[in-house]
Design a protein that fits this description.
The protein is α+β, with helices and mostly antiparallel strands. It has helices at residues 5-8, 48-62, 83-91, 97-102, 137-152, 186-190, 194-203, 235-263, 265-281, 287-302, 312-320, 323-330, 336-357, and strands spanning 26-35, 74-77, 107-110, 116-120, 126-133, 159-160, 164-165, 177-184, 206-209, 222-227. An 8-stranded antiparallel β-sheet has the order 2-3-4-5-1-8-10-9, with helices on one face.
Length: 358
Amino acid sequence: MSLQRFFSEAISPWMKNQKGPDADIVLSTRLRLARNLEDYPFPIIANEDSARTLLNYLSSELGKEGYSSLGELELLKMEDLSSNEKKVLVEKHLISPHLAESSIHGAVMLSEDESISIMINEEDHLRLQCLFPGFQLSEGLVLSGGLDDWVEEKVTYAFDEKRGYLTSCPTNVGTGMRASVMMHLPALVMTKQLNRILPAINQLGLVVRGIYGEGSEALGNLFQISNQMTLGKSEEDIVEDLRGVVMQVIQHERAARERLFQSSRVQIEDKVFRSYGILSNSRIIESKEAAKRLSDLRLGIDLDLIEGITGNILNELMILTQPGFLQQFAGETLSANERDIRRATLIRERLKLEETND
């Protein structure tokens, strides 16, 4: 496997040509398990020697054989990567910002299709992550459970009969599970309904964040909804609670789109085609405006206003136009102005490619 492929392709293989259920609103599903090993200091108090020992042990144990049909896992050590390569992995949601920025002897093990990511020496010894296109919580529960069992056959977890899996942060104690879905909610934002929905979601023990998790911004009307509590509930309960809320949000977003289309069709068409025109012709564009225009374009595609462009264009260009990817393609560090120029060029060329293929 070429390691360079992890940094050169914006769309992971698991996302290519796959829509998944309810993909017009739910772009992806992620399940992540936090785990620590017995007899090793947790990362928050570990010194460099113990972190190195743990990394060597885990990479040896988990690298002996591939997992299921997904094959061998490729090890990428953070110390071997450039700052920009780490930034690209964050932009693809394959590692966390924490692992990229502050980890001692951190690493990630990736499956060839990038649907499985095992982070080592992050906030916890292990973060097991599974990714799916569309709304696939049940499938994620099965795969993450199987991956967890596979790892536990090789190592001994830090586990307490009353508290469950022991983690660095108390909010992860219990199942250690974070289940989340990435949702595109332009109509709820436009109608200002989302401001009323968010407090209700929080009261149900769930949290809404930006596209890169805690502390990140909701660019392009993309929101990540996940569970907040991991103690006192089973993995199945967590997934079912999240599923129920997400299904209601999907219904609200679809209803809002229909109402907007019926009451303000000309205005919606104007908004969509203005953004399409700007994306197709601009010579310089900042990341926030690009995200906003790409959201409008994706809405136009989902409303069948624009034909010949795949819905995955939003997924792809939201990653491809981030600073890490722009600089990776350029092969050099770029100023903000240079990135804005290259971003506009890349979007124009990508849209022309879609039109040509159509």
